[in-house]
Amino acid sequence: MILLAAIALLSLLFGAGDVGPGRAWQALSDFDAAAMHDSEAHFVIGELRLPRLGIGLVVGIALGIAGALLQAVTRNPLAEPGLLGVSAGSAFAVTLAILWGADAATLRISVAQLGALGGCLCVLAAARLQGIGNDPVRLILAGAILSGLLHSLSSLILLFDQYTADEIRFWVVGSLAGRDATDLMPLAPSLALAALLTVILARPLAALALGEHVAIGLGHHPRVVRLLVIVVVALLVGGATAIAGPVTFVGLVVPFAARALAGPDIRRTLWFCLPLGPIVVVSADIVSRLVVPPSELPLGVITALIGAPVLIAVVRRRRLPML
After folding, report:
1. What transmembrane ranges does the database entry give (predicted)?
2. What are 153-181's pLDDT values in tens digits?
3. Are 62 and 240 in contact (CB under 8 A)?
């Protein structure tokens, strides 16, 4: 939590514009006075960086928790919403919605969550197939095929519809730029529902990790638990994708780090995901602002650079003899 607070402060101090750390610190020290003496710094902190930080916190928590839940329900350490096609399904649904004229934030969020639900159901179906669900790498390959198909369909839509392309060109690679705090308001009910379901599902998931027969013996219903987890993942990933675009690898890196700190118990892992998710997302967002000033890199590019080595490390650990 201390590390998260420090990174949040850095997110307010550093950016790609003319307001450097010195001016930003002075504006934060006396925010009301800055409105009169340095209106630019006051505007940048209050209207740009602070809402961006809030969205980064929410997106980090949502993707971190979603990744941990998806890995628990598929029993696959490589399961990640971006790799398995969940985020791609959400992005494809939003692309279709914009093509058909939808632009309201609430509609976009609900459409993104429905698209994520479709991607989750495909993942769950693939995980139940003999030879795929038991092999983490094959499951990732199946997810890559689904993601590639959905991205190709989205690209075709962008080629033939200029308005849709203009609307989502920067959004589709994942970014926190240009977002407003009001974007979070329509997301609040679904996030509250997802949080409640996560608390309820933590104990059944811990039992399910010991095996289906053990979970049934303890009074849980594995099929119901899996379906509810899929609903939670769809709510979290769909909401995060709607406001920040399809940000990949966060759902892989965060649970990986959380398990390294907390051990295999899913309940402890979920607690550690709460601060680790925002730490990863906000840190990547800071880097995206600073590497190519005065422009910015998309957030999805930075998270991919962070997550790719983790993916390779997990694959080598699981299948070293075959590599």
Report:
1. 50-70, 82-101, 107-127, 139-160, 191-211, 223-240, 269-291, 297-315
2. 888 877 777 766 666 666 666 777 777 77
3. yes
C-alpha 34/C-alpha 24 separation (Å) is 10
d(CA 295, CA 41) in angstroms, rounded, equals 18
d(CA 293, CA 230): 40
- Joined together, the tokens standing for residue 207 give 């039992």
Both tokens of 152, joined, read 């190709």
Measured CA to CA, the distance from residue 302 to residue 30 in angstroms comes to 33
DSSP, collapsed to helix, strand or coil, labels residue 267 as helix
| Cα 117 to Cα 230: distance, rounded to the nearest angstrom | 7
Q: What percent of the chain has pLDDT over 90?
A: 27
- The DSSP code for 171 is G
- DSSP code of residue 182: G
Class of domain 62-71+78-322: mainly alpha
Radius of gyration of the chain (CA): 20
Which tokens sit at 167? Answer: 């609307």
Predicted model pTM: 0.88
Average pLDDT over residues 242-250: 86
Torsion region of 17: left, alpha or beta (phi above 0 gives left; psi -120 to 50 gives alpha): beta
What's the average model confidence in pLDDT over 175-197? 84
